[in-house]
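FIELD: query
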Amino acid sequence: MNIGRIVGVIAAILLLVGAAVFFFFRNSYSAEGLYRMKTAFGIDAAAPERHIVAEGFQGWAIVHHSVEDAPPLHVDDGALVVEYPASGRLETSTPAYDDDGFLHREYFTRRAGGLVPLSRMGEIWGEYNIRVVRDEGGVTTNRSSGFFVGTMAEFREAERPIAGMELPELPGSPSL
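FIELD: result
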């Protein structure tokens, strides 16, 4: 077997693997695939999150977790679904799942034809997480997270929610 043939076979295999990886990461359900692959190999992984805003939404989308009497989030095909109302503010009784290691978030807008992915390179800015620890033992009782939907110029002009954020009160907890 000559060297040219060996190089050709290796190049074909690399192209095939590259195409498979490209397809995997372009697929809108790659979060579930990564989650299943990591857990299959024994790597701690939080369930992926699928954040969905209404069509035309622009501004800060914020979710407060562990809010008593708020509705729970649901899971769809292994992903925790966080669907925001038109206001962009959501409270849920579901605790945050990111203590389990790897966390993958995907962002979508809901349109009449279904979900349309939002890009972290042009439509999603300023992702953040805030943890509120309310006891001496270091137990986390609440988490809020958010992201901005819009253009970079709109993000730069928008007021930052973190500095003046009002976190929901948790029963039996002292105020901050």
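FIELD: remark
The chain is about 25% helix and 30% strand.
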